[in-house]
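Fold this sequence, please.
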Amino acid sequence: MVPRTPRRTFVALGAGGLALSLALAGCSAGGGSDDDGGPVTLSFLTDNTEATVATAEALADAFMEDNPDITIEVETRPQGADGDNVVKTRLSTGEMNDLFQYNSGSLMQALNPDQTLVNLDDQDYVDKFDENFIKSVSTDNGTYGVPMGQSMAGAVIYNKDIYEELGLEIPTTWDEFIANSEAIKEAGVAAPIVQTYGDTWTSQLFVLGDFNNVLADDPDWAEKYTNNEAKYVDEPAFAGFEHLQEAFEKELYNEDFASAKYPDGVTMVATGQGAQYPILTFAASQLMTTNPEAADVVGTFPLPGPDAGTNGLTVWMPTNTVYIPTSTEGAQLEAAQKFLEFLTTPESCDIQSETTAAQGPYVIDGCELPEDVPAMVSDMQPYFDEGKTNLALEFLSPIKGPALEQITVAVGSGITSAEDGAAQYDEDVKKQAQQLGLEGW
């Protein structure tokens, strides 16, 4: 057995550390290789959430156990806009790591995948992917990503004990959600609605998680939006911005909403400091990392809209998707392809289930969820079973403006009105639509 170099290195990349990150990428990408058949070292860039890092570690360990000539070193980057900048800069300079984890859907489309990512169409394992997942990582010219995780929903996680204590029912309309929130505020038992603008990306859920309600009102909205025929400043999409403003004006947020971070929000709901938190259900992984004792306490319900009859979940394909940049070549490319193939096996899915809590169904044939999933996940199943789901906009349209999280922070903080915020976002998406060469923009 060939001795291994150190298994992985962790480099946290702050907003001010971009120059350092590029230098490190230049050292790590393709480093430690031997094109003549010797040991190969792969650098693997992931976001810095505890759950993502834990999963990447465990998968790298299992893969290296079976492939002793390949070493995988994990490096971390920030979440949100800072992380987006790291990924885009490294790709544009040809200094991306050998493998990297990033979003599927519209954010992947913004990476110019036909030029920057390795096409996986010739890999047999692509046939095992759910059709909706393939759509989320493909262009007309290729398929580019492999899932490292499950599908999920943009929904509201909530503390079941608080609901039981106050005799509250699961809301199926926005008015009922606000009524529940005001009852929680009056009782003084917890912050009614948790917001965590210290991690700006979390501010988007009132808008993005409302998309099931947008499609319920207008099933063709995504197509119209892509063709520049529908806007956020108009109903039904405007409702998400209105909801942000209303909840702020009614003082339903936690006092530290401006500085609290995503892990804080999950812990608040788990411990009863907060009652409800609009977030992606990948929060199950965070919950089971930091507050596993609350697995049966934290539940999920859809972000409700105006009509109880169309109440349902807005669904995301796995955001933890793994890609190979075109800068990965030779022995590194062969080894990276081997790792991606490993990610599509039941063994890999079982490791993921053991390492971090499931957040929804897998999108790979042959991969099954364990029976003992957290309540946050099991609460979702009836909506899937009854067909009360719709894909999030980013999987139906390639358009997503880069400034949405800053705009929703401003609206949710009372700095910008809902109307102005929606108008700003309509303007924000124009540049990306034009860069994508979409007609009508």
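The radius of gyration is 21 Å. Residues 161 and 297 are 7 Å apart (CA to CA).
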